[in-house]
Write a structure and sequence with these properties.
The protein has 645 residues and is of the alpha/beta class. It has helices spanning 23-29, 46-56, 73-85, 97-110, 155-158, 163-181, 188-210, 215-234, 239-251, 255-270, 275-285, 290-300, 317-324, 337-349, 360-368, 376-395, 400-416, 423-430, 433-441, 551-558, and strands at residues 12-16, 35-38, 60-64, 90-95, 114-118, 129-134, 137-142, 150-154, 479-487, 498-502, 523-527, 533-539, 544-545, 564-565, 568-574, 581-587, 611-612, 615-617, 631-639. The chain folds into four domains: 1-158, Rossmann fold, CATH 3.40.50.1970; 163-355, Dehydroquinate synthase-like - alpha domain (Dehydroquinate synthase-like, alpha domain, Up-down Bundle), CATH 1.20.1090; 360-414, no CATH class; 433-639, Sandwich (Protocatechuate 3,4-Dioxygenase, subunit A). Helix 2 links the parallel strand 2 and strand 3. The structure holds benzoic acid and fe (iii) ion (FE).
């Protein structure tokens, strides 16, 4: 069972196109009348900043355009002096992560409310976390006052964001989502937000690379950035963020670019310890391998792929690894200095993380080869078989030896199969496939008797037997009197139903398994009378092992499973106008009816309503046959469905 604590940040979010016009009303909502307008002073944002100044009008009391990357405290102090000089009562910031960082740094020192207008995909606008740089060292802290009160997302402000910044900022958001999935603090809510963000980023980035003005893709990416930011605010991050902080703080590497280069390598490092996260990311991106898929995505959209190109010198790699592993922190995989140094070396060189090759074209070619099949059902089944088998092979990174083993296994199953020994049915039964097919075919209503698998020991056309006859031949055992009725769903008798019955002897063998036996024995065909009824004598069945001297038996013992079936009698009921019913009745109190998975019936055949009393009796028998000692009474009514029911 999963336990978790989920805290949702109380920020207000306005999302849409043209929402910049609403910033004044939002500032006033927070009681702002003396606003400080913060920006990074970038030329690209000059126009938008001007528009915002216009929207805020006379509320603007101070302006600071010097926000800088990694939020150096000197810059914060400079802005703080201005803020105090002008008695500012509300902060409004427009820009990327640096401007948001400055607003947060001021808010934590003054407790002033903030309205943030993000123009990139940083996501930090919805977190209560502040990263600052003091003397080249990046520190982070978290406090409620840091969380911006209101965020105004205006998709129009992002339309002009150049492709390189779109890519690195988008991958920065992707990093939040990926690390949220394997965070020890993850909750169902952060999981859902993260998967949605990964899917959207994987779709929007290539679209924006091809057409940076695609407004729908811009909106999708901005929304994903918000979701990923919510993840960042709700859960702790791991190795990737630690590495990026170290590289940014100690070596002055640019924030979003560093995230972009490092992410596939941090994922590759963590992949062995976080297979579920990698599987989810791979599925969301539609790629076979998550780290390689993220690397390919970055490459496809022209993002930086090596730390070398960001200006890090090779001689700094060891120190970076030392700094990043100096203090322990939660991460799915244990952090070793040599492991992290290897990761950084790969990132420095821009090596594609090793993943399975992209085999989708091969799968699609095989699928396309079925396109000419005129039988649509056959085409569907073969298509899905190819996809499923390819997926199985890829996901498990199957070796040639393992595949050969599987082929040898099936070959042996073929060799051991005869008219009376069917290894493929045993394989299907022990893998539970027969029960799945049975459940799909015979999903019945509560007022019809459950079906159960046929098994390999049915022989078509058994000898017809009189009511009350004994089908046990010379076999000895506890005598069993069976009094069986067949009715429809409402309980009305079904006369003329042909019922085949078969079972094993006390030693657990069917007649077909005993070559010296003069059979058929313990199998017969009855026809119901006017009351839908028939009776017969037999012996109490016992548990028995399915044939286990072949490859299926070896498979069971390799996984620590026993080969036993719970004691049962088989019935196949066929009545004109009714759906045939193949089923079994299990002896209540018998072995292998319950227990842990793998300890119960070896072929997953037991259903609760088929467990029946085989009542112990002594004394006179129903047909007056003399019996010494105990005998058993089986009374059962099968309810069958009409054709078309
Ligand atoms: C049977 O009940 O006869 C049976 C079913 C599956 C495998 C082996 C035997
Ligand atoms: Fe059986």
């Amino acid at each position: 069972m999963r336990s978790f604590v989920h805290t949702a940040g109380p920020s207000r979010v306005i999302f849409g196109a043209g929402t910049l016009d609403r910033v004044r009303e939002e500032a006033e909502r927070l009681g702002g009348s003396r606003v400080m307008l913060l920006s990074g002073g970038s030329r690209a944002l000059r126009k938008d900043t001007e528009r915002l100044r216009g929207v805020l009008g006379e509320l603007v009391t101070a302006e600071f355009a010097g926000a800088a990357m990694h939020t150096p405290v000197e810059v914060t102090e400079q802005a703080l002096r201005l803020l105090r000089d002008r008695s500012v009562d509300c902060l409004v910031a427009i820009g990327g992560g640096s401007t948001t960082g400055l607003a947060k740094a001021l808010a934590v020192r003054t407790d002033l409310p903030q309205v943030i207008v993000p123009t990139t995909y940083a996501g930090s606008e919805v977190t209560p976390v502040l990263g600052e740089t003091v003397d080249g060292r990046k520190t982070t802290r978290s406090a409620p006052a840091i969380l911006p009160e209101t965020v105004v997302y205006d998709v129009e402000l992002t339309l002009g964001l150049p492709v390189p910044a779109t890519v690195t900022s988008g991958i920065n958001a992707l990093a939040h989502a990926v690390e949220a999935l394997y965070s020890p603090d993850a909750t169902p809510v952060t999981d859902a937000m993260a998967v949605e963000a990964v899917t959207a980023i994987g779709r929007a980035l290539p679209a924006l690379h091809d057409d940076p003005t695609d407004a729908e893709a811009r909106a999708e990416l901005l929304q994903a950035a918000w979701l990923a930011g919510m993840c960042l605010g709700a859960v702790g991050m791991g190795l990737h963020h630690k590495l990026c902080h170290t590289l940014g703080g100690a070596f002055g590497l640019p924030h979003a670019e560093t995230h972009t280069v490092v992410l596939p390598h941090a994922m590759a490092y963590n992949a062995p310890a976080a297979p579920e996260t990698m599987e989810r990311v791979a599925r969301a991106l539609g790629v076979p391998d998550a780290p390689a898929g993220v690397f390919d995505l970055i490459h496809r959209v022209g993002g930086p792929t090596s730390l070398r190109e960001l200006g890090l010198s090779e001689s700094d790699l060891d120190r970076a690894a030392e700094l990043a592993t100096a203090q322990p922190y939660p991460n799915p995989r244990e952090l070793t200095r040599t492991g992290v140094a290897g990761l950084l070396r790969n990132a420095w060189q821009g090596r594609r993380p090793e993943g399975p090759p992209d085999l989708r074209p091969l799968t699609e070619e095989v699928v396309a080869s079925f396109a000419g099949c005129e039988n649509p059902r056959l085409r569907q089944l073969l298509t899905d078989l190819a996809r499923t088998l390819h997926g199985y092979t890829i996901r498990n990174d199957l070796t040639p030896q393992e595949w050969q083993f599987a082929i040898d296994f099936l070959t042996e199953a073929g060799h051991i199969t005869t008219d009376t020994r069917q290894e493929f049915i045993l394989l299907s039964d022990t893998l539970g496939v027969s029960s799945v097919v049975d459940a799909l075919t015979n999903s019945r209503t509560p007022d019809t008797t459950s079906s159960a698998i046929l098994g390999p020991f049915y022989v078509a056309g058994p000898p017809s037997a009189e009511h009350g006859s004994d089908i046990a031949g010379d076999f000895t055992g506890t005598p069993l009197w069976a009094d069986i009725r067949v009715t429809d769903r409402e309980g009305a008798p079904v006369p003329g139903a042909v019922v085949d019955v078969w079972q094993s002897n006390e030693e657990g063998f069917y007649d077909v398994q005993l070559p010296d036996l003069d059979g058929p024995v313990l199998r017969a065909r009855f026809t119901t009378d006017e009351d839908g009824r028939f009776t017969f004598w037999s012996i109490l069945p016992s548990e028995y092992p399915i044939p286990d001297d072949g490859p299926v038996g070896r498979m069971l013992s390799a996984v620590g499973r026993h080969p036993y079936r719970a004691p049962h009698v088989h019935f196949l009921i066929d009545a004109p106008g009714y759906q045939p019913l193949i089923t079994q009745l299990f002896v209540r109190g018998g072995a292998y009816l319950d227990g842990a998975p793998g300890q119960r019936d070896a072929v997953f055949g037991v259903k609760d309503d088929l467990i029946t009393d085989f009542v112990p009796r002594t004394g006179p028998t129903p047909d007056g046959r003399p019996v010494e000692g105990e005998w058993r009474l089986l009374e059962f009514t099968f309810h069958i469905a009409r054709l078309g029911d």
